[in-house]
Amino acid sequence: MASNAGAVANQVHQGTVNVPNNVPGITAQQTRDLAGNTAKASGFFVFDSLLGLVASMIGASVGTRKPRTHS
Length: 71
Prior knowledge:
With 71 residues, this protein is mainly alpha-helical. 69% of the residues lie in helices and 0% in strands. Helix 1 runs antiparallel to helix 2. It is rod-shaped. The relative contact order is 0.12.
């Protein structure tokens, strides 16, 4: 998603993207801002997902039972 946002922003800047006529009041700068914000949001989503994965793995390793050793 983040890699495509830059390409979309470049196409909008060059004027090669056709914006539908039924969306009044949106400028090229607003489109670039929206693409940048979308890229940031997807980056945070990926980071938060990985953080949740690490936390669950730590919790699983702490919660596992240790085998009893007979002495």
